[in-house]
Amino acid sequence: MNTHLTAALGLAARGVPVLPLRAGKVPFGNCRACRNNACGGRPSMKTPGPCECSRPCHAWAAATTDRTTLTGAGWASAWRQAGAVAYHPGGVELTVVDLDDTSAIAWARATLPATHTVSTTRGEHWIYRGAMQSANGVRPGVDIKSTMSYARWLGPGIGTAVPLPETVRALVASKPSPVRPVTAPVPARGGECRHRSPAYLDRGIAMAEQRITAATTAVHATVYRTFLAVLSTHGGCGCLTDSHMQRLFTAAQTKGESARHCADAWGNALARLGM
Predict the structure, then answer these.
(1) Closest CA to 145 of 86, 206, 204, 68
(2) Please, are residues 151 and 11 in contact by the beta-carbon 8 Å criterion?
(3) Cα–Cα distance, 79 to 202 (Å, whole number)
(4) Closest CA relative to residue 98, chosen from 121, 130, 124
(5) Rounded CA separation 58/36 (Å)
(6) Which helix (H) or strand (E) holds 250?
(7) Is the model more confident about 176 or about 156?
(8) Is the distance from CB of 242 to CB of 184 less than 8 angstroms?
C-alpha cells in the first residue's frame, strides 16, 4: 500500500481528518464537476469531508476520516501522485502555530507556553488543544493553521499538547483582515442601470451582508452564492464599486473566510456570469 495512504489511514483511525497533498505541499485541484466551485462547495462547513463527487476536491474541506472514501477509486490517483499527507487541525479541535524560521521559534519560546512540538523543514509546528480562526503572517515567520486550513503531517513530534493560550488567539484578533484587491465589474453587455437611487444598491448590499452573517452552516457556499446574486443583480451597469465589494468581503471574513477565499469566490462568480 502507498506509504502516504498508510499514514493517512492510521491518522483517520484516530479520528484525524486527512487529505493528500501534491508535491509542493499544495492540495489537488478540483475535479471537472467542482471546478470554479460550480458544485457550491462542501455541504457543511462544520463537518470535514469531501463533496459528493467523492474525490479530494476543495482543498482542506476534502479532509475526511472515512476509510471507504480514502481508499476509494476517486482518491486512488491522488494517492499515487501524493507528495505528503495533510490534516485539518480545526477538525480535531487543534491549532498549529507554524513557526517558519529560527527567529519565530525564539519568539515562541519566549512568549508561548511549551506544548506538543513537531519539527518542520525550516522550523517547528507548535500544536495546542482548541480551535480558532486560521490566519497567515500574524507576525514575521508565524502562521496559524486551525479551522478552514490544513497542516502537513510530519510525524508524531514530542511533548504534550496544552490548551490554546489567549496569546495565540490575540495574534489573529489584532491582525487586520486584508482585502485582496479585485477590480469591481465594469458595465457588462450594455446592462441597463436599475439603481435609480443609491438606496437601492445600499439595500441590496445590506441584505447580502445580513445573509452572510446569518449563515450557521455551509458558510463557504453561502458566500459564493451571495456574491453571485449580488453581481447578477447589481454588477451589470458599473454602479458596484470596490467599497461595496469590501463590505461583502468583511462580512465573509467575520464568518471565518480568508481574504483568499473571498477573492476566489468573487472571481468565480464573475466568471460564472461572464463579466
Answers:
(1) 86
(2) no
(3) 48
(4) 124
(5) 10
(6) helix 242-254
(7) 156
(8) yes
| CA dist., res. 9 & res. 18, Å (int) | 8
Secondary structure class of 203 (helix, strand, coil) = helix
C-alpha angle 117-131-263 in degrees, rounded to nearest 5: 105
Burial string for 115-126 (b: 16+ CB within 10 Å, else e) reads bbbbeeeebbbb
Q: Which three three-digit cell numbers place residue 171? A: 495574534
CB-based contact 149:90 (threshold 8 Å): yes
The tens digit of pLDDT for each residue in 21-50 reads 988 788 888 888 877 666 766 544 444 445
Q: What residue type is assigned to position 52 of the chain?
A: E
What order do you get walking across the sheet with 18-22 strand by strand? 26-27, 18-22, 84-87, 151-152
What is the H or E stretch that residue 168 is in? helix 166-173
Going by DSSP bridges, is the β-strand pair 135-139/124-129 parallel, antiparallel, or unpaired? unpaired
Task: Assess contact for 132 and 122: CB atoms under 8 A.
Answer: no
Is residue 238 within 8 A of residue 185, CB to CB? The reply is yes
pTM summary value: 0.65
Contacts 24+ apart (CB under 8 A), 184-187: 184/235, 184/240, 184/241, 184/242, 184/244, 184/245, 185/231, 185/235, 185/236, 185/238, 185/240, 185/270, 185/275, 186/238, 187/236, 187/237, 187/238
pLDDT tens string 165-200: 999 999 887 655 444 444 444 444 444 566 656 677
